[in-house]
Design goal:
Protein name (chains A, B): ACOX2 oxidase
CATH topology of one domain in chain A: Butyryl-CoA Dehydrogenase, subunit A, domain 3
Organism (chains A, B): Galbula dea
Oligomer: homodimer
Keywords (chains A, B): FAD, Fatty acid metabolism, Flavoprotein, Lipid metabolism, Oxidoreductase, Peroxisome, Phosphoprotein
GO biological process, one term (chains A, B): fatty acid beta-oxidation using acyl-CoA oxidase
Pfam families (chains A, B): ACOX (PF01756), ACOX_C_alpha1 (PF22924), Acyl-CoA_ox_N (PF14749)
Shape of chain A: globular
CATH class of one domain in chain A: Mainly Alpha
Strand content of chain A: 5-15%
Chain lengths: ~650, ~650
């Protein structure tokens, strides 16, 4: 049965949830396709995540392998393909709890970096799972800075082989998924040496386990790196190489080759690699970051209208906690952010698709902008969404802290997105390097990419808002963001130049500006997110009811950002203290308005109960019943603990001395 | 052997680490006592936490019970007592990974709420562990708001018994520690009914498990609430009562009694309860919050001088990551905060001790201030320290994400401190209720407690700083904090009054101000923390070298707070934009200064390797070696996974169809 407190929230929706869902999906036909995929996956007991919160790392790994193998069959049965339109819905339905993710990266790297001959040899083997691959780049002592990798591959002309070695412990490969226990092969990144000369980092295909009995190959030491904060399902592994010989043909050689006599030849552009990283970051944003935050909002907001605590009005019954301003102020900005990031993610995908078409015509002009944006957005979105999930968790109090709420595992997993595919600080500094360059170019009248043209027009000024309603005007707040971002970029550029002119070495000057550079990069991305949200809302004119609520969310997102970063807007007086009070008033006024539609707004994300896997967040709101039922299934309740016979009984029966 | 990169950091310390340690301990004699306790605990294999990261919830519980029973013996052997001076060092050495914490709360509640006769009966039974107690207050549907609890206790004159019931599922007791699997008894909070009249919440001693065989008593349903984000060692439990009869004498009756004829009598002051909560919050701050953040700083800072990544200066070797400004700006403010909170925790303890002496003389005057401060500080310190641990974790990149770093378990545990012993938002609103009251009183010239006298003197003004060095003057920044806190309190009080005067109902007006009220409470506590840090540094004049580095940390703490909350200081122009640039410059200038002493500053916290239990943070800096050794002990490496025979082999050998 439906919890009446949750049911009543749905009766007063100001818009059609189904229409909003279809719009979020990009059209009703995609909603239908997504639901069909979800139904097929969730209807299959092998893919059940019911016991997930009770399983050990070993059990999670086994289940993930089982699911991956079953998925291979299922896809065949259903006629789904790796790159088909269903692909992203499959991923969403499985919530990433499946093995062989790195097997796909293994294949992708061969396709990108291998010659046609290599592709013809290896891709069919991998596609048919005659081998299982992984991708071994990161080392124990080396992450982001690829030039620092220490693994070596020495070419031996006599045998026409490469000899791979891990010269010291910090050079051990560390973290690659699917490598700890599953993979038979891996792509190893190593420093190439020919005739004693180092040619830098190159990729090599190395077999690590027997195809017969899965035992480790000669010279290979490999295993699992042990427990992590999440990703228990994945066998992230270590790999040590001791005089491992591989044939010359195993160096991936689309771009370069070591010829039989040891001559090193390099050709073609490597810019495309750059493009791969970009594509991975853009898919991380939508699949690994935005989806979890939408789930967290769904769970926390539904729970907040079921949970009642304390009296708001004396004499009445206890109030729904979502009726408290502080609870609204925790959750509703996160909801607005989920929408904002969904829209900017669509924008990035569009930008990527355009760039891809250009690249196929050998035009690489869009790459720097695309790289800067994908880096910066990956950083700010993963950061904001991680903190959003934490806020949702804490907003559910003690019950949020139970694994059964689903929130802890969303948090521990999303947190990793701040680290992998480029650590966020390093990514922000890449974005700011681009911004400083563009700012310099713009200052001297040179052309710059569209997203940064605003930097050319930095001018002092004042926000024209006269009352709190003016701050609900998108032109007013978008300009405030633009002004703020441009100010941060220009003032940091000025500091950098001052330092260099005063005699500080360039690399030192850069280091001394990095805190502010990172801030400038964030401001730039924040501005673009607001601008894109505004434009998205403007384009919706055919759906008035949805447009109206989206406008409220857009306002909330923008004003929450000003309220929370007030110093950045007040700094040069663009917004005055009096105006900041108007911002605060408008911001707080929006909370009860959006609160009325909060449940329909999360319903529109259209997550099934199985997909949320949360005792707090299910559609019917039967929170307490479900917590109790699920707790009873816990292994901690399966039998009386041996601790009783061993320790408690002797203690209680006062036979301690016999212990 | 010692990692040379870490060793070199210790050679240049500007002060004596040993002296700083002694000073933090409150004197060298306490350092000696602490080390003796730590040695006794860590030398005993039963207390080892070596396997902690590999254990299941069941294994953690068993180990915790084993340790608790062993500790009982050990304390006897060592001559340590429950309330002796060693007590807090024992807790620190065990890192909380031990059972029977709620057993102590059970005893404390009987001592506080029970009559002399009840104390004489129950305390010896509990002390000798003839019974094991728990404390059942929170319900599935009810937390902070005690009046909302639904469990009932109906007095039956005929049998002279109370009959306890859980009328519906939301009334089930939920979360009490030691209750899921260990406790034989518990204190149950229930609504008392006599002759059909409800007298509100009262505490009752209820037996829940047989002393003979530990089976559940008639009418009792109890068990474990299942997996949580941390606290795997603790059997947090649920409890349902169905017509459970207990004798009249089992109602704790220091303050009230139901007489045999059903007459309800109440006497004495309950203010002392209020005082208990205060004492618990103050001990949470030091034991559960500050200690973990000191550990996290130790781990992250040691790792950051061992880890090298990318080149800072072209041509040189890769740089220690602590040499990057962005890494300094992540970690050093957390280090400064750890010191700041240690000092304010001492201040709160002193205030508590004074209040305790007054209470013994029946003077309750200090209670409101103490309550407001303990609530507000518990909230801001748990919040800041939780976020500090997360920052430390992320600053260690991928390795920080491994459980073996020790950081994930510090994080998942400290996060709970934002929720238990009063959810933080609710606590902040209690503090702000006190602040508004005092502000009103002060405005009309009435006397107010010492910590809030500054509210009487709110006046507009400008910060007198003329250059960046002025912002290293404690009077300058302390006044800025004071001004800012007073402004937030007074402006929120004004908003509240305006709303009420405009006809908004009082409870609604309060709700509409809560976001700003919480902000004002934070500002007040932030100001007191800065002020107390300044005063602590001033008092150290006999130890010049330590005073100097503490002054730097104090400056960093204060300026980081202004930098990160710039809007609050810029809002009314107290600090101008130009001055904020000076703040930023002074703040960033401090980073490389403190960086030089960063390792000695964490060494002074004096955590042993066993106590850190971190592959990244040990004293010798052998990070990579230890990660590799520990990973090999993981259960994921114990044998070939059954997943191979079951799923991988048939897949690789292309026998999938037979699956």
């Amino acid at each position: 049965s439906m919890n009446p407190d949750l049911a009543s929230e749905r009766q007063t929706a100001s818009f059609s949830v189904e229409k909003l869902t279809a719009w979020l999906d990009g059209g009703a036909e995609y909603t239908r396709m997504r639901r069909a995929v979800v139904e097929a996956i969730e209807g299959d007991p092998v893919f059940s995540r019911e016991d997930q919160y009770f399983q050990s790392q070993n059990e999670r790994y086994e289940a993930a392998v089982k699911k991956a193998v079953h998925l291979h069959k299922k896809m065949h049965e259903m006629g789904w393909t790796e790159n088909g339109p269903e692909s992203k819905y499959i991923h969403r339905a499985l919530a990433g709890d499946v093995a062989f993710f790195l097997h796909r990266i293994f294949m992708r790297s061969i396709s990108m970096l291998g010659s046609d001959k290599q592709i013809a040899k290896w891709i069919p083997l991998a596609t048919q799972y005659k081998i299982i691959g992984s991708y071994a780049q990161t080392e124990l002592g080396h992450g982001t800075y690829l030039q620092g990798l220490e693994t070596t591959a020495v070419f031996d002309i006599a045998t026409q082989e490469f000899i791979l070695n891990t010269p010291k412990i910090s050079a051990m490969k560390w973290w690659p998924g699917d490598m700890g226990r599953s993979a038979t092969h891996t792509v190893v990144f190593a420093q190439l040496y020919v005739h004693g000369k180092c040619y830098g980092i190159h990729p090599f295909i190395v077999q690590i386990r027997s195809l017969q009995d899965h035992s480790l190959c000669p010279g290979i030491t490999a295993g699992d790196i042990g427990p992590k904060m999440s990703f228990e399902h994945s066998d992230n592994g270590f790999l040590m190489l001791q005089n491992v010989h591989i044939p010359r043909e195993n160096m991936l050689n689309k771009f370069c080759e070591v010829q039989p006599d040891g001559t090193y030849v390099r050709w073609g552009s490597q810019k495309i690699n750059y493009f791969t990283m970009t594509s991975v970051r853009i898919s991380v944003i939508s699949d690994e970051v935005i989806s979890p935050v939408m789930k967290a909002c769904t769970i926390a907001i539904r729970y907040s209208v079921v949970r009642r605590q304390s009296k708001l009005k004396p004499g009445e019954e206890e109030a729904k906690i979502l009726d408290y301003q502080t609870q609204q102020e925790k959750l509703l900005p996160q909801l607005a952010a989920a929408y904002a990031f969904h829209f900017i993610s669509n924008y990035l995908q569009g930008l990527f698709d355009r760039a891809y078409r250009e690249i196929q015509r050998k035009n690489f002009n869009m790459l720097p902008e695309l790289h800067a944006l994908s880096s910066g957005f990956k950083a700010i979105i993963s950061q904001c969404c991680t903190s959003a999930v934490e806020i949702c968790l804490r907003a559910c109090g003690g019950h949020g802290y139970s694994l059964l709420s689903g929130l802890p595992s969303l948090y521990t997993k999303i947190l990793a997105s701040c680290i992998y595919e480029g650590e966020n600080t390093i990514l922000l500094l890449q974005t700011s390097r681009f911004l400083i360059k563009c700012f310099m170019a713009a200052s001297t009248g040179q052309p710059v990419p569209p997203s940064v043209t605003y930097l050319a027009a930095v001018k002092p000024g004042k926000c024209p808002a006269k009352n709190k309603l003016d701050f609900l005007r998108p032109d007013i707040y978008t300009e405030a963001y633009q002004h703020m971002a441009a100010r941060l970029v220009s003032s940091t550029a000025a500091k950098l130049q001052d330092l260099i002119q005063s005699g500080v070495k360039k690399y030192n000057a850069w280091n001394q500006c990095t805190v502010q550079l990172a801030q400038a990069a964030k401001a730039h991305c924040h501005y673009l997110t607001v601008k894109n949200f505004v434009e998205t809302v403007e384009k919706m004119e055919t759906q008035a009811a949805i447009q109206k609520i989206m406008k409220h969310l857009c306002d909330l997102f923008a004003l929450h950002g000003i309220f929370s970063n007030a110093g950045l807007f007040l700094h040069d007086g663009y917004i005055s203290g009096v105006q900041m009070d108007m911002v605060t008033a408008s911001y707080l006024d929006l909370l009860p308005v959006i609160r009325k539609d909060a449940v329909p707004l999360v319903d529109a994300f259209d997550f099934t109960d199985k997909s949320l896997n949360s005792a707090l967040g299910s559609y019917d709101g039967q929170v307490y019943q479900r917590l109790y039922e699920w707790a009873q299934k816990s292994p901690t309740n399966k039998q009386m603990s041996p601790a009783y016979e061993r320790y408690l009984k002797p203690l209680l029966h006062n036979k301690l001395s016999k212990l």
